[in-house]
Amino acid sequence: MTNAGTSRRRSIGAQRNPESQQAILKAAEAILMEDGLAGFSIEAVARRAHAGKPTIYRWWPSRAALLLDVYHHQKHVERVPDTGSLETDIIAFLTALFGYWRDGNAGAIFRSVIAEAQTDVKATDALRAYVLDRFSQSAEFVRRAQARGEAADWVSPELAIELLAGFAWNRLLTSRLDDNPEELQRLARQISLGLKG
Amino acid sequence: MTNAGTSRRRSIGAQRNPESQQAILKAAEAILMEDGLAGFSIEAVARRAHAGKPTIYRWWPSRAALLLDVYHHQKHVERVPDTGSLETDIIAFLTALFGYWRDGNAGAIFRSVIAEAQTDVKATDALRAYVLDRFSQSAEFVRRAQARGEAADWVSPELAIELLAGFAWNRLLTSRLDDNPEELQRLARQISLGLKG
Amino acid sequence: MTNAGTSRRRSIGAQRNPESQQAILKAAEAILMEDGLAGFSIEAVARRAHAGKPTIYRWWPSRAALLLDVYHHQKHVERVPDTGSLETDIIAFLTALFGYWRDGNAGAIFRSVIAEAQTDVKATDALRAYVLDRFSQSAEFVRRAQARGEAADWVSPELAIELLAGFAWNRLLTSRLDDNPEELQRLARQISLGLKG
Amino acid sequence: MTNAGTSRRRSIGAQRNPESQQAILKAAEAILMEDGLAGFSIEAVARRAHAGKPTIYRWWPSRAALLLDVYHHQKHVERVPDTGSLETDIIAFLTALFGYWRDGNAGAIFRSVIAEAQTDVKATDALRAYVLDRFSQSAEFVRRAQARGEAADWVSPELAIELLAGFAWNRLLTSRLDDNPEELQRLARQISLGLKG
DNA sequence: AGATAAGCGAGACGGTACGTCACGTCTTCAC
DNA sequence: GTGAAGACGTGACGTACCGTCTCGCTTATCT
After folding, report:
1. Contact check, Cβ <8 Å, A118/B170
2. Which of A53, A110, C83, D119 has its CA 20 to 30 A from that of B161?
């Protein structure tokens, strides 16, 4: 930080000031972490970041946009496990996702993004695009299982991931992220072998 | 309606006036249906119901409480299919749920409840209790399949339902309720037979 | 004051709270007195009066309306002198007006009202109506002079007052209110006798 | 205009660019004419003149300074009538002034200057200096009347002009510039002969 | 039967946040 | 160093809701 404490942040000419951008994202993240979505307002972010509201609105057209940007700036979890076996891949996938959401702020932030998407159409669209992209990435480990002959040809890798992700969303959105290893094992077994066993 | 148009609603003494209660719930539902969660405010409900704000606050302590009450007053879909076969039961379950959410207002209202639950802890608790109850009810058709020998003994009916419900939630929350029958069939097959086929 | 310091001002039901009204007018007056028109904002008045902005906007549709109201709540100067002689009446009229504007806040407030009237059409209309009314009231002493035979029949009392008032406005608006008794005497003489002497 | 439309205005080295200066003054005048003082902002002038804000602030330290400059660049009316008679000189003086203010933009601009002078002390000083200078110039026709023996020796030409100007200001500031010839005649008669006739 | 108590619509209250506008300052880059 | 350009922090704008309060009323229930 070049400006550490001594002087205020200023314009650096007719171009975006990355210090302001960082300060705003950090403030937004901190507020979400501390007070949740309820305390998250443009005004509060501006106050905490020592930024002007117009500066925020200049670069993020809405609360939802800022929220999504905060989420995207989170460190990402590896979502394509590769343990060599479908069943353990499933367990690894869910364990990593639950841990990611549980340990840092990512869970609280993602809950906020989902909530926002129920109000703001742009947020809905952005969230849909995001999850579809994620699903197709994560589906890779199922595709690998198919290549290994471990999964049937007729299964849809995306649909399989959607099933796992839907399960995880439900747990997240109802505050039930405490992962039970046996439960996950059972789930992985159910999914890989099917209800019919 | 006893008071049809001619006179205003009044107190009926030191007791809750059911007409007011009904008017408020109807107004709340109409607003959610027409404008979604974004337009849903106590102020707007009071305006539309020709009710005083204190009347609303007297009986519903928060926005979330009113929202949940609206949802509970919706007609419920039958969630325990019984077609005689596990695979068609799964299809029937999801088809009914998607249709229920898509056709009436129930989808918009449930999305609102979920969103509210991300902000309001009481709403989270209420939602969690609600879904756990629902899951255990719906799990009945999986239990029946087990009884028929159509599903393995070691599978958890609740977990199975949670998988289906999670899938449905994800579709609802990202506005992807347009149900594709083939997709549902494939999903049902995946779940019943497992990825390994 | 019934609420002296101990408790906050509250709603007294579905009716205007006169305490709030008074607090707002006093705050507005104090701000004008201390900081002039430059510091006069609805926000500042609300802050000082411990009132909500919507409360101000509820009762005064604009800055101009509040400004005029503040001016109208000033103590009024007697503008119809009656010394028995036209010339001394003129001197008394101007002396009183200058003194009124100079001594209290009235001058600063009236300057603000005039300035506002150059921006806001409603304020222009209100100011015009106000001055025309004032002129016709003040014209009384000229009418009395006519009745006494001290002024010619063909003179217009209103026009005469407008001449005096215009002179006073000019002095007020250019910060030249320091009254010079000899100058006023000369002016009174000029007006009563005419330039031709 | 040398640069008509084809290219942007640029620096012409370490000296003031008169094209920019002209463009800014023209833009300021046009805005005052079209939207009045309410629409007059440095931002709006910069936008309309395709000028940078710092360019404006470099040469005019405040809104008031720009306003006064715009006023000074107006074509001036001849304010020293010479009809040979005091009474018709008075009528000519007022008719010319009213016409000047009414016909072009000058009235709107001068109103703005006066309003600004109620907020900005520098503008007050500049306005006072300006009007005192004007008064002494215009007083010339009264002095001539004195030289002709048409006005008494003891009258103050400046005071007489101040009376006329004050009358005119009042009309300008309350949007009553519609000149009534008979009224002006009566006024001229009152002033020249005096109220006592 | 009269008093009491609570519910009702209404709407004002002090607040907070909204999204926009203009302020005056600052920096960049072309000339 | 001047020019256009435009980002910056600041703060006011006028509006929407928040949750609380009091009003004036209506009516069932309890003396």
Report:
1. no
2. A110
